[in-house]
Amino acid sequence: MQKFIYYGAGTYAQVRFDDFRRQYELFCFCDRNATDGQTLFDLPVYPPSILFKQYPETPIVLTVHPIYNKATVQDYLTQELGVPAERIANYEPHIQCTSCEFLDNFIILNDNGWSFCCNLFGNNKSPYIDFIPGASVRNVVQQLKDFRNAVLEAISKNEQCACTGCCELKTRYRKELPAPAFALVFNFTNICNLKCIYCTVHKESVSMDMIDIQKRLDIITELLYQKLIDNNTEIRFGSGEITIHPQRQEILRAVKDFPCGISSNCIVYDESLAELIALGRSYVICSVDAGTRETYEKIRGADYFDKLRDSLRKYVKKGTIILKYIFLTNLNDNDNDVNSFIQLCEDIKPAQVLISRDWNDISPLNDNLLKMMARMLVNIKNAEPLKGALTNDETIRLANYIEKLQMQGDYE
Ligand code: SF4
Q: Is 127 inside a domain boundary?
């Protein structure tokens, strides 16, 4: 069987390692930032020079994030280093244009319509279209294509549309369309067992309506057929809590062949969710946002911190767990919570820790909060700020604090 050099030894490669390995037999890793003697999963991580000297014939697979890094890594390899595009197994042509990462990469399948992003981005006027009543599945998917094309065209011509004025519209790289989406978001419920202070889901009228799983599956089959998604498209479960939904077993089994990214508060240890991540293609992302019981209760509305820790210990034995910490000014940006969260991560050993801001407050982050973020970043393995969570100025200030901590050598 042919073996591949995995280009990219960062967090994405580590989190999705099982999934890559299932598709491409691994030969070794290669990374622009490789250090002397570095290994990953007991295999060497080499610098790019090996692509020409030792192994000039070995094919490459890019194990970097498809949305944030792939286009630039492709350009680096093909244009700067002269690697032929045909040598890269998962090469995808990109173009530069004005667009947004959600419109380019996400499809949101709601009960009765399509959208692309959280409507907060577009000040409640983001693109949304209802399914035509009585339309066939084929027409419903065609409707999505036509709608997205119309929005993209309006953006390219600078015409008024639902995205006009949105802060997410930027000049960026995107895959040449048509191309399979990075993620299909499967919206199915807004029921939840917590009342997080930054979340709006529990303020909406609660719906426990059963969903038509077969209808969703038919739509997914048609999306595959029309190549709007493929078997590598991530199925994401967003708002609402999957572990308490009455149809969770059926829903999770229905999507088990896709890589799934499932947001869960992980208070309930659910066997069907554990089974899904045990298959090796999927992960659970859990926002903890506290290091202590008291703060957890204040932020998340219930005293479940100990229960959460017990569940996380069980989930992590089954598969990939990503933890998240949303910093909230004067609530969880203190020594006690930050140090205790660092200890929690040492105990759970998540595959990745994402550090974010509270999107409800986009005023500049204060110095104390950035210092606390820096402490987490130098003390927790595989911790990184959520993409786009920081402004350029905040990124520079954060980097300064990180450097100071590293120079002190005393990470506390
Ligand atoms: S530009 Fe804004 S409103 Fe339009 S899809 Fe992107 S995030 Fe949503």
A: no
Cross-strand partners of 320: 283
pLDDT value at position 285?
96
pTM of the model: 0.89
CA distance from start to end of the chain: 48
Ligand 1 atom with least separation from CA of 151: 4
CATH of the domain at 40: 3.40.50
**Ligand 1 centroid vs 252 CA: distance in angstroms?**
28
Same domain, residue pair 228 and 341: yes
**Are residues 232 and 336 both part of a single domain?**
yes
d(CA 319, CA 98): 37
The secondary structure of residue 233, as a DSSP letter, is P
Q: How confident is the chain (412 residues) per 10-residue block, as mean pLDDT?
A: 94 92 95 95 95 94 95 96 97 92 91 82 76 95 95 94 88 87 88 88 68 91 95 88 92 93 96 96 96 97 96 97 97 97 97 92 91 96 90 94 85 52
Q: Which atom of ligand 1 is nearest to the CA of 169?
A: 1
- Residue 315, domain CATH: 3.20.20.70
Domain that holds residue 78: 3-92
Q: Whose CA is nearest to atom 4 of ligand 1?
A: 163
Residue 11 lies in a domain: yes
User: Which one, of 211, 161, 208, lies nearest residue 186 by Cα?
Assistant: 211
